[in-house]
Specification:
The complex is a heterodimer of chains A (176) and B (604). Chain A has 176 residues and is an alpha+beta fold. Chain A has helices at 28-39, 68-80, 110-122, 143-153; strands at residues 14-23, 42-52, 57-66, 84-89, 96-107, 126-130, 134-141, 158-163, 167-170. The chains are: A alpha+beta (176), B alpha/beta (604). Bound molecules: thiamine diphosphate (TPP) and magnesium ion.
Chain lengths: 176, 604
Amino acid sequence: MAAKKGQKEVEQVEQRIIAVLVDNEPGVLARVIGLFSGRGYNIESLTVSEVDSVENISRITVVASGTPMVLEQIKAQFDRLVPVHKVSDLTEDGPCVARELALIKVKGTGEKRVEALRIADIFRSRVVDSTIKSFVFEMTGTSDKIDAFIELMEPLGLVDACRTGIVAIARGPKPL
Amino acid sequence: MTISVYEGLDVAKIKKKKNSGKLLTGAEIILKALCEEGVEVIFGYPGGAVLPLYDALFKQNNIRHILVRHEQGAVHAAEGYARSTGKVGVVLVTSGPGATNAVTGLTDALMDSIPIVCLSGQVPTHMIGNDAFQEADTVGITRPCTKHNYLVKDAANISQVIHEAFYVARSGRPGPVLVDLPKDIQINKAAYGGKPKLVHKSYRPQVKGDSAAIAEAVEMLANAKRPIIYAGGGIINSGPKASKLLGEFLKLTGFPCTQTLMALGCYPTDGKLSLGMLGMHGTLEANLAMHGCDVMIAVGARFDDRITGRVADFAPGSKKIHIDIDSSSFNKSIAVDLTIQGDCGNVLADLIKQWKAKKAKSNAKALKSWWKTIDGWRARNSLSYEKSDTIIKPQYALERLRELTRGRDTYFTTEVGQHQMWAAQFLSFDKPNHWMTSGGLGTMGYGLPAAMGTQVAHPKSLVVDIAGEASFMMNMQEFSTLMQYRLPVKAFILNNQCMGMVRQWQELMHGGRYSESYMKSLPDFVKLAEAFGAVGLRATKPSEVDDLIKEMIAVDCAVIADVRVDPTENCFPMIPSGAAHNEMLLGPADKAKGKGTEEGMVLV
Ligand SMILES: Cc1ncc(C[n+]2csc(CCOP(=O)(O)OP(=O)(O)O)c2C)c(N)n1
Ligand SMILES: [Mg+2]
């Protein structure tokens, strides 16, 4: 690797989505989390799941924030972990699709209940559980969209929301 | 922060090889794998969870075991062994307290990039997680202080894991690797898989530098008016060839070269082009040359805070080239202009090749005037100290040691404190792998066991631990080990009867309030030596120093030399914490400036 860097970094905090392929072995997640806590990096979200059961590979998606210098450090630190196969900065390397899944529980009757359902419909959210007093909505989308939906549900009887954190993939035909 | 986890099943990928030859116990497989890795010696301490391994050790003659007196000593001994030979050092400890005692050594090896494989016993697999007797979450505890670690859960995986551990420890930027071995795994039988021939599936460090980047470096260096080479411990780690290549490149260019604490020996410190050590207690010429350079090339160095001083004023206005095998060292604290990832030796070889092929020439006129400036700084003789006829100055004792060991194959280790910095300043270093010191972690108690491991590797050579009396007492139990194996290590204690380095900071920065930096009732070190069955020597006057050193070298036995030095001497030059390279304190007269800034007060 050869890289050039301006002498004066712009010390602005940015957010990046970083995808990492790792061996799916015990403790690999502890290594990743230990790296962030031990070095004081900020994680906004982190998701991990196996993506190749034959090769035993998991894919981690991290949303991290920091100055460009810190973000470069985060990638380099990932890279030196022994079970890491590949590190890719999806934000920097071109356009990517980023999505989150959320489950949102809303309680209410009468007018509020109808309104919640109407808004859910506008947001293309699905009802996955229903009682006469409550709904659980399922929704995938960008984090902003989910934020907006949860905000609208607040006055309509929001009980709980749970979110997966971002998963992301580069646009176009190329693999990671 | 959101985290979601699906870790999947822990499927052992390596299928048990049935019918492929004889079945061995896990312990036998471990020893077989160690033999195949060329291991000659293990530093260890037994306990319940490693008894099967000790039993297997008993039944063989290929590997020697050195029984230490404390597991921390075992790891430092392995570090000394590794650093002085270039091989991987091997440690064997039991579960629980054995493993936790090894933690300081592992952290030390991680900070200084020393290749170590530490085998630890563990409670049997079915008891893991039950708070069993002498159970500790060893992989959990050592995860942040090892380069990598493993818990073996199936005897069939042992050989693969051990070989991989050695590969990881020595490849790329070296470091400590721990393998946790439950007791049942050491007893269970499996076939020995042999050394895997395949390349590692994920860990493949880049060792060859990018040739376009190297070309750019040649261009930058040839155009430099005030160049400097900032050489780091990576050169030592790369092997003796890298030191040779550095010398060749220096000869080719005529550039000045300064070395970090970890790099001492990569180029003769007495050499014409050497500016000596840089950093907090480095020479004036090294630090001012760093401050005033226009092009800097860092080779296997990591811009540590002991080197840079105040980051904002580090080598202002210079262009920086950074060669390192570990990309996470790039732009960590100091932004550089050109990075070349690769092994120092490899990159230096390519740099020389390209320099020659391009018929590059240093800017002779500019270089001449740069050297003139540097010689002006040199002439200030920043390592000078006030001599005395009545009291032994620590610097004097080291100068005499340097002269009386000249021409011998001497290995020096150190503890941590003033004596360590004086040793770096006043000894001379002309070969790699002959200087073992705890740089990154600054571990008091490192030097004696490190000397022990070095002596095991080089039984015929002179091995001296330059010690402070406080540091010495942190691992002095290893004197018993030295006696058991007839290892004639010399502990050269610069006894100032206080924690000199702590006292120095309290004097400079805390108004001379010497809070807990003095120990009452220090032992009589001569009698202590005798109690161990070793030789004790003492010098209290400058006139006694030469005789003490000569006798220390002459006796074929471990020695504790109690050299009573000036208890008030401070280590200069010094860049106070948080100050810049051009704000050095040169001697006691500069003491008033020592308090430094308020930001400096929070730094260590
Ligand atoms: C294990 C450990 N504990 C504490 C320290 C902090 N420390 C650094 S130097 C020093 C004093 C060392 O005293 P001594 O060994 O007598 O050396 P001197 O400075 O007097 O030469 C201390 C306590 C350390 N480096 N390591
Ligand atoms: Mg002392």
